[in-house]
Known about the structure:
The protein contains six helices and twelve strands. With 235 residues, it is of the alpha/beta class. It has one domain (5-12, 19-116, 150-217): 3-Layer(aba) Sandwich (Glutaconate Coenzyme A-transferase). Strands 1, 2, 3, 4, 5, 9, 10, 11 and 12 form a nine-stranded mixed β-sheet that branches. Strands 6-8-7 form a three-stranded antiparallel β-sheet. Strand 3, helix 3 and strand 4 (72-77) form a beta-alpha-beta unit. The protein is globular and about 55 Å long. It comes from Sphingobium nicotianae.
Amino acid sequence: MVNKLYETPAAxxxxxxxxxxxxxxxxxxxxxxxxxxxxxxxxxxxxxxTFISNNCGADGFGLxxxxxxxxxxxxxxxxxxxxxxxxxxxxxxxxxxxxxxxxTLAERIRAGGAGIPAFYTKTGVGTVVAQGxxxxxxxxxxxxxxxxxxxxxxxxxxxxxxxSGNLVFRKTARNFNPVMATAGSVTVAEVEEIVPLGALDxxxxxTPGIYVxxxxxxxxxxxxxxxxTTRARPN
Length: 235
């Protein structure tokens, strides 16, 4: 069996990074971000990057650190959030942005992993989302054509993995990480726990190991909450 286990996040990314590449980065908001791999991309100093991600982190965290370092040229996202740096760079013309409806972004990534170059969706018809894209009618309704998304590298964060690369994600981290794991030419997974081969119930595996090239134990697990809303407990 090919050894997919790496000792450090830096070693897991060695030889994979280059200027101008496209990277998919998992996570939903700040949940499921590859917290250990993102700093290594920053420290590698690669530039002119295109990132495909639900969002671009929050102040001081996640992909924000690559924005602050001037390494990202373009974002393909569905949520800008309250990232003030993202907003300012875009308004100043220093950051390209391809904004997608969230379900469309997920489906474009899934299509990339499944080898489907294009599909039609009703989402975005008659809005700026559809500008410049073919629109066709099916059963009396207009649908806009969207194209797949693929990347040179996918970096994802999972809860558990075995040495073959079978991945299990936990809760909200399951939103974008599994489809991104299928759509990268190379996929690197950082995981919280590496279990022995055979320890994972096959019915519980979210991403089969065939899609995963490298595995590393995560070294950063802050799991920040962007906004915490609570209410007082009743008496």
